[in-house]
Amino acid sequence: MTYALDSNTISYFLRDEGNVRKNVELELAKNGNYYAIPPVVIYEVQRWLRDKPTKKVREAASTFGMLLQAVVSKSEMPLEVFEKAADIYIELKQKGQLIGDADILIAAYCMVNNYTLVTRNTDDFKRIDGLKFTNWF
């Protein structure tokens, strides 16, 4: 199984909050489990790291760099992801339950690649039919 890490999950991992680090280690220790970081999440985390250049954040940036090097994932978002995202957008709009574009792209990335999203943002992502997600916090 491949788990796609949401930006909040990476933030908790870097700050060692909740049970995220423990769960990442437990799941990755299982044979055949991997993780991916959607490109939109890489942008969100890089933006967060660059916005507050403190010593603690620089240490987190170093850890994030190591995390990125170990990623087992495609680094691009093929056209199919954007097509799926547009479908998700229309479906949510028709229900009157829109969420942010970044979250729609993250969900589409996970669905196209058959990944399970790891997020604490379950309120938004539960609106998307067919998206597999879990909360490791």
Relevant terms:
alpha/beta; Rossmann fold; four-stranded parallel sheet; 4 strands; globular
Structural class: alpha/beta
How would you describe the shape? globular
Please tally the β strands and state the result. Answer: 4
The helix fraction, in percent, is: 55-70%
Tell me the number of helical segments per DSSP (H or I, 4 or more residues long): 7
Write out the CATH superfamily name: 5'-nuclease
Order of helices and strands: EHHEHHHHEHE
Strand content: 5-15%
Distance between the first and last residues' Cα: 19 Å
Number of domains: 1
Order of adjacent strands in the largest pleated sheet: 2-1-3-4
Rg over CA atoms, rounded to whole Å, is 15 Å
Would you give the CATH topology? Rossmann fold
Main β-sheet, in a few words? 4 strands, parallel
Return residue spans where pLDDT drops below 50 for at least 5 consecutive residues: none
Examine the secondary-structure arrangement and name the CATH architecture: 3-Layer(aba) Sandwich
Name of the level-1 CATH class: Alpha Beta
Instruction: Please tell me the overall pLDDT.
Output: 90
Question: Topology of this structure?
Answer:
Layout: E1 2-5, H1 7-15, H2 20-29, E2 34-36, H3 39-51, H4 55-69, H5 79-95, H6 101-113, E3 116-118, H7 122-125, E4 133-134
Parallel strand pairs: 1-2, 1-3, 3-4
Helix pairs in contact: 5-6
Structure at a glance:
This protein has 7 helices and 4 strands.
Can you describe what's shown?
The protein has 137 residues and is α/β, with parallel strands linked by helices. It has one domain: 3-Layer(aba) Sandwich (Rossmann fold). The chain is 59% helix and 9% strand. It contains seven helices and four strands. It has helices spanning 7-15, 20-29, 39-51, 55-69, 79-95, 101-113, 122-125; strands at 2-5, 34-36, 116-118, 133-134. It has a four-stranded parallel sheet with strand order 2-1-3-4. Helix 7 (122-125) links the parallel strand 3 (116-118) and strand 4. The longest helix has 17 residues, at 79-95. The chain starts with a strand and ends with a strand. 31% of the residues are buried.
